[in-house]
Amino acid sequence: MTNFFWVALGGAIGAVGRYSIGLWLINLSKLFPFATLIVNITGSFLLALLFAWQLNQDGVNQQLWLLLGVGTLGAFTTFSTFSLDLVLLAQQGEWLKAVIYALLNIVGCIAAVLLALWLKS
């Protein structure tokens, strides 16, 4: 039961963080779904840093991983929102925006992971 507590606590933190960024970028996101893009790239970077850091420890701290990796960053990163944004852009006939958005998310997140792993090495 304790594991669920750490995931739930982290999930609440991540969800509030995601919501806060959405509010902060609300005007900019009317033009393009920047909030989701920034959250996905930042979350990918932070998750990779946490993962790499855990690998360099004597042992994985399960509670810390559940709190930060599974809970906080799991709720913070919004790939499901990315998918919905992408489909909505396509349904609105915004095909160029949809393609650019998909490429920026995919390339940006992979680049963020590579950067985080490079920084940690």
UniProtKB/TrEMBL annotation:
Which GO MF term does the entry hold, naming one?
Answer: metal ion binding
Q: Which reaction does it catalyse?
A: fluoride(in) = fluoride(out)
Point out the coiled-coil segments of this chain.
none
What UniProt keywords apply to this chain's record, in alphabetical order? Cell inner membrane, Cell membrane, Ion channel, Ion transport, Membrane, Metal-binding, Sodium, Transmembrane, Transmembrane helix, Transport
* GO BP, one annotated term: cellular detoxification of fluoride
Entry-linked InterPro entries: FluC (IPR003691)
Q: How does it sit in the membrane?
A: Multi-pass membrane protein
Spell out where the chain crosses the membrane. 6-26, 31-53, 65-87, 99-119
- Compartments where found: Cell membrane
What Pfam families would the database entry show?
CRCB
Family that this chain belongs to: Belongs to the fluoride channel Fluc/FEX (TC 1.A.43) family.
How is this protein named in the record? Fluoride-specific ion channel FluC
Task: State which gene encodes it.
Answer: fluC
